[in-house]
Design a protein that fits this description.
Length: 418
């Protein structure tokens, strides 16, 4: 293993894995053919990953009714997938160093597609949970590696906008998975609904394979061991600045997913009484994330990452407050505001991790995704307990508290984030 004494981050030295970006490679310039292909390919990967990951969420009320399980238990079909993804990100970063980022991502998407097909055919709830964990493990090869591949191949001056474009693809995936699964589940059953959403994910996977250009900023190494990966990850975990960014991932994502997990249950009950097909249309609010993630990346050049991250979090909190009303129109507006704020903040935090990690970049990005999906899994489930015990007000208080805590951590670690 080739090493260098330091990675230039605040937390001390990070060993330089031999499978690191080549020092003489500047990256593709904005506007070039390869740059456009990378963005289109990663947007497709985002669609594929998140359509597969969150397809069951759009059909949770139908699934809960059909399988006779509670709201919190049905949400395990979402949390189990995100737990699997969280567990998979570091092993995939090791595999990618040995076989290449693109090869690892292609295998991840293929495996996810096969497990998704098996999931729709499995009869028992417990077995479905196991398959969702396995599918999540497969999908762990996408989020961290996508941003790592992007930072390897694109010039640093264009990386913030490019990373935001990938995040916008994740929002499109979230929309497609949920908005297809919900109405189709009500018409033909939830297995057909979820299966159609995963078909979209499979098609997007094919687009990624066709468009992604070969890596030029990365040299793979068969000598990279899991010890190397653990050492690099440990160095990032000793960096207060990285820890502050990982906290944003855990706390903001956890609150965001909790809202989406249980809002459908709230709106199908009195006084709203909406159908599952109608509530699934609320996932169109993800379009706000598609727009705001790109805008957040562009605002960085004027305001700086810290201010844009704080602004996104503040917008999130405002959206949560709007959902407390009993007026459906205001609830929808609140959901749109919440979504735009979250994806703006996420685009900045995830891109910031890649920008700070000059060495051990795959491990830095993987850790971000580890905390991101742990937040989705843990808080996404805990939110159900708050919803069952104190209604929507209790859930809203939980989410606003998490947002405030995330910003307190960011302010405390401000000197380490320069």
């Amino acid at each position: 293993m080739k090493t260098s004494p330091t990675d230039g981050t605040a937390g001390g030295s990070v060993p330089r894995l031999s499978a690191e970006p080549m020092d003489l490679w500047d990256g593709h310039a904005q506007g070039s053919r390869e740059y456009r292909r990378i963005l289109a390919a990663l947007l497709s990967a985002g669609v594929a990953c998140f359509a597969a990951l969150y397809a069951p969420q759009g059909a949770l009320p139908v699934i809960a009714s059909d399988l006779h399980v509670s709201e919190a238990r049905s949400a395990l079909l979402v949390s189990s997938g995100t737990i699997g993804l969280a567990l998979g990100v570091l092993p995939w970063s090791w595999a990618a160093d040995r076989i290449g980022r693109l090869t690892a991502m292609r295998w991840a998407l293929l495996t996810s597609a096969l497990l998704g097909l098996a999931w729709t055919l499995f009869p028992g709830f417990e077995g479905m949970i196991v398959l969702r964990v396995l599918q999540g493990l497969a999908l762990g090869g996408i989020p961290g590696l996508a941003l790592t591949y992007l930072h390897d191949e694109i010039r640093p001056s264009h990386a913030a906008v490019a990373a935001a474009t990938y995040v916008s693809g994740t929002t499109l995936g979230g929309i497609s998975g949920r908005i297809i699964a919900g109405p189709a589940a009500e018409l033909w059953g939830w297995r057909w609904g979820v299966g159609l959403a995963w078909l979209v994910a499979a098609l997007a996977s094919g687009v990624f394979v066709l468009l992604a250009p070969p890596a030029r900023g990365f040299v793979r190494s068969a000598r990279t061991s899991m010890v190397d990966v653990v050492v690099a990850a440990g160095a990032h975990l000793r960096d207060p600045g990285m820890l502050a960014l990982y906290a944003q991932a855990f706390l903001l994502m956890g609150g965001f997913v909790a809202v989406y997990n249980y809002l459908g249950f709230r709106l199908e009950a009195a006084p709203f009484g909406l159908s599952a097909a109608f509530t699934s249309l609320l996932f169109l609010a993800y379009l706000a994330g598609t727009v705001c993630s790109r805008q957040a990346g562009q605002l960085v050049e004027r305001l700086g990452r810290a201010r844009v991250l704080a602004l996104g979090s503040l917008v999130m909190a405002g959206g949560v407050l709007l959902t407390l009303t009993s007026e459906l129109a205001l609830v929808v507006v609140g959901l749109v505001v919440l979504t735009g704020g979250f994806f703006g903040a996420h685009a900045i935090a995830s891109g910031w991790v890649g920008a700070r990690a000059r060495r051990g970049r795959a491990q830095a990005a993987s850790l971000y995704n580890l905390f991101y999906y742990l937040g989705s899994s843990v808080v996404g489930w805990i939110g159900g307990l708050f919803f069952a015990g104190w209604g929507w007000t209790g859930l809203a208080v939980l989410v606003i508290t998490l947002i405030a805590l995330a910003q307190a951590v960011r302010v405390t670690a401000a000197k380490h984030l320069t």
